[in-house]
Task: structure prediction
Amino acid sequence: MNRFAACLGMLLLATAPAVLAQDTGRRYQVEIVIFEQSPPTSELLVRPEAPAAGSEADVSEPVLTEPAPTPEPRTSLPEWLEGPAVSPEMEGVVRKLASGGYPVLWHQAWTQPANRLGSEQPVPLALLAAVGQGEARPGLSGEVTLSAGTYLHLGLDLEFLAGPGTTYELSQQRRVKIGEMHYFDHPRLGAIALVTLP
Result:
């Protein structure tokens, strides 16, 4: 009987991380800083919006875009979404980026449960802005997903209108560990994310 109990205990210990990660009732604090990288190079993944063939459009004219949607009032936020204060670690990251000449486009912290992997529910940046730290820099839009399978995964799907007719996209998902900073790289955009337990 003792041998059976020992084997059962070892099995439970081996599967505990996966069981915990799949518990979508667990809440996580997510904090993300999005910043602008160095000037464009020939290797950038750029989606230029060129005028149609034969058009005499003046490319020096500013492109008119619709204003960013106004965040919903705090009272209308989903029950699962909360906005804690930003962490001192990430505040330090923001200061270093700014002093190094990297413009910060967005910095936000919030808590939420993780969706099951494969059934992600993206959260728009405009909605996250309503939890307290403010809206993203004009021209930046996108969504964030947090999902749990055997491991936690954080996904970013961002679009940045860098200037008239030029849009940059960052679309990545990666495995994240609790308490570790993770860097999402792109030639024109960068993001640093930290996921912790509140």
